[in-house]
């Protein structure tokens, strides 16, 4: 029966020809800009809802103090 695995002396090696290499180096500034967190610049609906709830409780407490 034939051995199907590669023996110790026969290692697979991938050679990259000069024609297969990247022609131009990558732009490090563009990579850094793409990896930066760029999310929405406004509050979420949940944050707005919580803020309104806090404002309502604050108004109710102020009205109770005034009475």
Number of helices: 2
How much of the polypeptide forms β-strand, as a percent range? Answer: under 5%
Give the integer mean of the pLDDT values: 77
Distance from first to last alpha carbon: 97 Å
Fraction of residues in H or I helices: 40-55%
* Largest pleated sheet: none
- Shape summary: rod-shaped
Report the structural category. Answer: mainly alpha
Total strands: the figure is 0
Order of helices and strands: HH
Give the uncertain stretches in residue-range form. Answer: none
Radius of gyration: 32 Å
What does this structure look like?
The protein is mostly helical and 67 residues long. Helix content is 45%, strand content 0%. The protein contains two helices and no strands. The mean pLDDT is 77.
In summary, what is this structure?
With 67 residues, the chain is mainly alpha-helical. It is 45% helix and 0% strand. 0% of the residues are buried.
List the helices and strands and how they pair.
Elements: H1 28-35, H2 45-66
List keywords for this structure.
single chain, 67 residues, mainly alpha, 45% helix, rod-shaped
């Amino acid at each position: 029966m034939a051995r199907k695995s590669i023996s110790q002396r026969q290692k697979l090696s991938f050679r990259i020809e000069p024609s297969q290499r990247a022609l131009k180096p990558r732009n490090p500034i563009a990579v850094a800009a793409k990896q930066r967190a760029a999310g929405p610049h406004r509050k979420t609906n949940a944050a707005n809802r919580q803020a309104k709830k806090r404002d309502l409780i604050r108004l109710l407490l102020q009205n109770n103090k005034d009475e």
